[in-house]
Write a structure and sequence with these properties.
This protein is 10% helix and 38% strand. The chain contains one helix and seven strands; from the N terminus they run βββββαββ.
Length: 124
């Protein structure tokens, strides 16, 4: 990782802190999942980086359509600061013959709101 500073590039050292499958509910209330990798900086003044990947067998809505919900859940569960870099990753096997992509996503907020149970859904 690198950051720009006064016309120079300075390496930013980060380490993989977590790599897991994150469950979430899409806009229709269907269960879905994505792969989440969290990279924490060695310098506390740098921001963490989260890479959220769309698995080829995701049963619910895409990570693009649920990005805000996923980000809020990842931040809450992993006790991350809201000032982080969020990267949406679509591996080649998830693009139906397209190319692998990485996109930087910028959010205006990371608010998690409680919703009512969906139809016959029960609270845990």
């Amino acid at each position: 990782m690198y950051r720009l500073m006064e016309s120079s590039v300075i390496p930013v050292h980060q380490h993989l802190a977590s790599d897991y499958i994150h469950p979430y509910k899409d806009a229709g209330g269907r269960p879905a999942r994505c792969r989440v990798r969290i990279y924490l900086p060695d310098d506390m003044h740098d921001a963490p980086v989260v890479i959220c990947s769309e698995p080829p067998n995701n049963p619910g809505g895409s990570i693009t359509n649920s990005a805000e919900v996923i980000a809020a859940g990842v931040i809450k569960v992993n006790e991350l600061p809201p000032s982080l870099a969020w990267i949406e990753h679509w591996p080649e096997e998830s693009t139906r013959g397209g190319e692998e992509t990485f996109e930087l996503v910028v959010f205006s907020s990371y608010e998690v709101t409680e919703r009512r149970p969906y139809l016959c859904e029960k609270r845990a």
